[in-house]
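[job 4471] stage=fold_predict status=RUNNING
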Amino acid sequence: MDFVLLIASFAVILAGALLFTNAVEWIGHRLHMGQGAVGSLLAAVGTAMPETLIAIVALIEGSKSEDIAIGAIVGAPFLLATLAMGLVGLSAYLYRPRRPQGIVLEADVPTLDRDLTFFLVFFALGLALGFGAPSALQIPAGAAFLAAYPAYVWLTLAQVRSSRRRPSIP
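[job 4471] inference complete, writing structure tokens
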């Protein structure tokens, strides 16, 4: 019975992911957001929700579940980045005959720079804080992390606005 529930749950998750992806793309289109902004802001919030809820539930359960919360917070970005980058590379290689650019990936470098810089800086700071930061520093650091996200949103949307103003070069 557990196996049947596991398979059914997996099917529900896949169906939800398909609906979520379509909804995010349409919301981004209606808000006139670029693809990078849709992925960085809308999709990222939705995909981060399960890891966030796992961490919250684990912390509420008690101190024995603290490792689960830390694992969900730390492990999820690495797992998703590894899978996503691997799948993109593999897809580019496997479908190279159908792609006009072959195996070359045409990524938006400014978007990648912004996203990876924010991720690496704040992930490194969070990791450093996790390894024995004084408790007096943890609350101000948490507040700084919360304040960083609106700054990231502003930078992302400002980049979308400035890319619309730039004339395209033929």
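[job 4471] summary: Helices lie at 2-30, 35-61, 66-94, 109-130, 135-165.
[job 4471] exit 0
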